[in-house]
Amino acid sequence: METLRATSTWSPTADRYCLWAEDVAGSSFVPEPIQSDPLAALLLEVDEAEQETGRIAGFEIIGFLTFDHWESLPKLDVLWQLPGREPLPLDQLLKRVQKELRRRKVQEAA
Q1: Interatomic CA distance for residues 58 and 3, integer angstroms
Q2: pLDDT value at residue 107
Q3: Are 45 and 24 in contact (CB under 8 A)?
Q4: Cβ 53 vs Cβ 47: under 8 Å
Q5: Total domain count for the chain?
Q6: Which of 1, 49, 64, 69 sits most deeply, having the most CB atoms within 10 A of its CB?
Q7: Could you give the CA distance from residue 68 to residue 45 in angstroms, rounded to a whole number?
Q8: Which alpha helices (DSSP H) does the chain contain, by range?
Q9: What is the residue range of 35's domain?
């Protein structure tokens, strides 16, 4: 199974989490919303003619801390790897990050 090295960004005020594939950094992309939640989307790379290349640019969820539609995430034949972490399937990586961000938010509120 292919491993995509990735980076991520999170905006606490918008509760927007983006996972970015490093090998397509700076590329143009189009969102492909997942069926059960229009605020979550697979980001697909497009070329200069705005045609999909077949490569994944990333994944985005608005409302990340409350997202719970894990079963509707696409089953991809790739693992995602954030710096210093083990490669994981998309759903496992997102659940782990969500748990960490929730914990951080609680600590900051205390």
Answers
A1: 13
A2: 81
A3: yes
A4: yes
A5: 1
A6: 64
A7: 26
A8: 90-109
A9: 2-109
CA pseudo-torsion sign 56, 91, 87, 65:
positive
Cβ atoms of residues 8 and 19 within 8 Å:
yes
Q: pLDDT tens digits for the chain (110 residues)?
A: 899 999 999 999 999 999 999 987 778 999 999 887 889 999 999 998 989 998 899 999 999 999 999 988 988 999 999 999 999 999 999 999 999 999 988 888 77
Give the other-Cβ count within 10 Å of 83's Cβ: 9
Query: What is the chain's Cα-based Rg?
Result: 14
Tokens found for residue 75: 């089953």
> Residue 110 has what pLDDT?
72
The residue whose two tokens read 């590329």 is 27
